[in-house]
Amino acid sequence: MPVKKIISTNAAPPAVGPYSQAIRAGSFLFLSGQLPLDPKSGTIVGDDIEAQTRQVILNIKSILAAEGLSLSDVVKTTVFLKDIQHFPKMNGIYKEFFSQDAPARSTFQVANLPMNALVEIESIAIAE
């Protein structure tokens, strides 16, 4: 039976509800959806999709680093966009971080996101 370990780091925004930044279960790290929040102030970074996507991925990197992992360990992401028209610009920033061996991905337009963010990304990483 895999052991469940709660992952938390001050280098990423804290959970603002009854959830964890990430959970390690066996060889997998499951990251909660990350918003484009500044880890120190807790406010949204940027007012465009590029700046917000960049901050979301930096937050993901910080949580991964807390377990000694990197973006190359990510095997699946789910991207939630407030407006699917932002897909090309989001994708351009996403490619800067996932340039080789990109993870499997799903992308959806949603009615709204917490704090009126433009993007949220959740991810799963392999931690062997």
Description:
With 128 residues, the chain is an alpha+beta fold. The chain has a single domain (4-126), classed as RutC-like (60s Ribosomal Protein L30, Chain: A, 2-Layer Sandwich). Helix content is 22%, strand content 29%. It has helices spanning 49-65, 87-97, and strands at residues 4-7, 22-25, 28-34, 74-81, 104-109, 119-126. The chain has a 6-stranded mixed beta sheet with strand order 1-2-3-6-4-5, with helices on one face. The mean pLDDT is 96.
CATH topology category name: 60s Ribosomal Protein L30, Chain: A
Structurally, the number of domains stands at 1
- State the total count of DSSP E strands: 6
Major beta sheet, specifics?
A: 6 strands, mixed
User: Using only CA atoms, what is the Rg?
Assistant: 14 Å
Q: Please mark out the parts with pLDDT under 50 across 5 or more consecutive residues, or reply none.
A: none
**How far apart, in Å, are the first and last alpha carbons?**
16 Å
SS class: alpha+beta
